[in-house]
Amino acid sequence: MGSVWELDFYSRPVLDDNQKKRWEVLLCEGIVNAETQPDQVFRYQKFLSSSEVNSISLKGAIDEAIAAATSQGVGPPSRIRYFRYQMQNMILRACDEAGIPARPSRRTLALNHWLQERYATVYPTMEGFTTVPAPSVAAPPPNPQPLPDALLGQQWAFVSLEAAAFADLPEWDIDFGEAFPLGMANLTPDTPIPGLLIFSPRATALAAWMSGLELACWRVETGKTPDIVLETGAADSWILAALTNPQLVAEAQRFDAAKAQANQVHFIGIQDSPESESFAGFWLLQELNLG
What we know:
This protein is an alpha/beta fold and 291 residues long. The chain has helices spanning 55-71, 88-97, 109-121, 203-210, 246-261, and strands at residues 4-15, 21-29, 43-48, 79-82, 102-104, 145-146, 155-162, 174-178, 192-199, 215-221, 227-232, 236-242, 265-271, 279-286. The protein folds into 2 domains: 4-125, 2-Layer Sandwich (Nucleotidyltransferase, domain 5), CATH 3.30.420; 145-286, no CATH class. Helices cover 22% and strands 32% of the residues. A hairpin with a 3-residue loop joins β11 (227-232) and β12. The longest helix has 17 residues, at 55-71.
């Protein structure tokens, strides 16, 4: 089974000789565990002109990336994640023609890390660099949906662990989940990482369901009906729990503030009961600023 890859295909802040923005394809292996470092994953990059912005050119780039990976001993992807909502028709068509399933996801941690590097150290050094911002391709605001009744947790709790506690994460007993090395977030060992634990006798079913959702983050929604909301895919969200009194709202807001102090890193865990020493599901998350 191949690995998960992450893809971006969009214009960059670099103008060509005709004052048109150059487009770029980025493909890289995703990071799905706490042991893989960003500089260890396969990466592929290719610039294209604005006249080459189509699914044929993108499919050709995907084929080139797979060939390059194979030559380096890296297997082809089993699926591809992408976050640019408004590019999805072109991306889906190209991936379909390449024979690879593609899924919208805001869990593109390796790609986001790489993009930050390129915006800081690559594009500003290129001839034609411009500071004119690109138009947003953000997805429409999600409308949180209730969880299926059969998957509702019976109990939940806000918890916190220091970053150093995740050093032995690969040894934890976890059935479903994903993680990443906390070094990517530049956190000190004593940084508190906030989390949410959900307890349910149907923990395995809930964790299995969540594993197919492309978990992005959880956040606190403090509107008319305060809730804990799980963000998934490119534009989906689910109500995990209702905040039924002011004390819970205040506690949730404190954890939201702790998430900001931890560079938006947080986690969600699913267990049978508070006494359990294993996890039916555990996801280390980071809320990304995806433009």
